[in-house]
Amino acid sequence: MAGASATDDSSASTAGMRDDDRSLSGESLSEWRSCDQGESGSPSTSPPFWDTDYDDDDPGPKPSELYGRHTWRIENFSKEKKREMKSEPFEAGGYKWYILVYPQGCDVSNHLSLFLCVANHDKLLPGWSHFAQFTIAVGNMDPKKIKYSDTLHRFWKKEHDWGWKKFMELSKIQDGFLVDDVLEIIAQVQVIREKVDRPFRCLDRPYRRELLRVYTTNIEQIYRRFIEERRNKLTKLIEDKIRWSSFRAFWSAIDPRTRHRMSREKTDIILKVLVKHFFVEKEVTSTLVMDSLYTGLKALEYQSMGKKGRTKIAELDELPAPMVNVDMDIFVLAGDVITLLERAALEPLPCQPVSPKDDKCSQSRMKV
User: Which Pfam families does the annotation name (predicted)?
Assistant: First the structure.
């Protein structure tokens, strides 16, 4: 069976997965979903790009059009004798998928094994490949005990299924997961339409908000580590009085026209480097990082437009003054190079306080 062979790779099982791909506790996820539901009734006053999958410059399909969800209810589960079972096919991103379950475990004992599979994989043409983020959950009569796992995977002809051999222990099935001997399995699938030249929207809005409740801290750590590594190098340069004075003298000696030219760069050149650095296929947070970079780029564009008097968005007034502006397809340093370098090295990083309505969610994330 293709489903069994493809999952022999230890990275496809919970036991062999990295921390970012671990199975998430139902308690934390149910709490952040409760918080999310509490927010849904409030109208948004954010800029139009803040929490949407809309892109003026992109005529292709939006993340919401590449997302699918399927619920599979298996009746008389405790009496099931089959080694493996398949759900009905469902569509996501223009392709058919199905859930594959091993009630007694796939190459493991005493565990429920769950996988997401591409339907009709035997008919796929050589070279077929699509990248997807997906979440599989097993329902529970107590919402706080729902079992979730999510991951990223590039599906192709020889690796057309992916999931977890040790999704959960069979001994725990009776702890509210069977209701009238029915096991409910929910799959969410987001096909990713990748770009290599600039940050891009990856996730359907509700799915993105769900994942953010879990991985916000991880994303903040990724950015802080990236910034602090470069700040440390810059700080060492500034603290070295001889080298810093030499650089200042070098920069001052350059003629103004050359300094002006060196303070500008095409956006595509910078953005390609960012995408290459931050979009790591095996990291479950990569899609959220791309979404946040997309949002940051849009915020920078709106701030730059505001400086020129073309638009005014109150929410952006509270953001720190940017060190870079966007002028058409060019990044332009927003001031003197020496001043900006000193500011980049010495200015404290912003700290985002947790709002009261998110406090419970934040605490539940810490339990994961």
Answer: MATH_2
Tokens 């809309």 found at? 54
3-class DSSP assignment, residue 140: coil
- Separation of alpha carbons 322 and 316, rounded Å: 11
Range of lowest pLDDT (42-51, 61-70, 180-189, 320-329): 42-51
Residue among 120, 130, 168 at smallest CA distance from 152? 130
Measured over the CA atoms of residue 261, residue 262, residue 264 and residue 268, the dihedral's sign is positive
What tokens appear for 164 in the block?
A: 């977890």
Q: Which domains does the chain have, with CATH numbers?
A: 2-192 (2.60.210.10), 205-366 (no CATH)
Bridge pairing between strands 147-156 and 129-138: antiparallel
Q: What is the pLDDT, as a whole number, of residue 359? A: 40
pLDDT higher than threshold 80 for residue 16: no
242-231-199 Cα angle (round to 5): 135
Please report the DSSP string for 10-70 in residue order: GGGSGGG--GGGSEEPHHHHHHHHHHHHHHTTSPP-S-TTTT----TT--S--GGGGEEEE
At 315, is the secondary structure helix, strand, or coil?
Answer: helix
Tell me whether strands 111-118 and 182-192 are parallel, antiparallel or unpaired: unpaired
User: What span, in angstroms and rounded, lies between the C-alpha atoms of 99 and 311?
Assistant: 48
**pLDDT-derived band of residue 102, with 50, 70 and 90 as boundaries?**
very high
Q: What is the 3-state secondary structure (H, E, C) of 152-187?
A: EEEEECCECEEEEEEEEEHHHCCCCCEECCEEEEEE
Distances, alpha carbon 162 to alpha carbons 77, 87, 116, 155, 212, in Å: 22, 15, 6, 8, 23
Of 187, 188, 191, the residue nearest 87 (C-alpha): 187
Residue 179 Cα to chain centre, angstroms: 33
Is the pLDDT reported for residue 278 higher than 90? yes
CB contact at 8 A, 222 and 285: yes
Q: And the tokens for 354?
A: 């947790």
Placement of tokens 């190079």 in the chain: 337
- Cα dist from 252 to 225, 246, 258, 338, whole Å: 32, 10, 11, 9
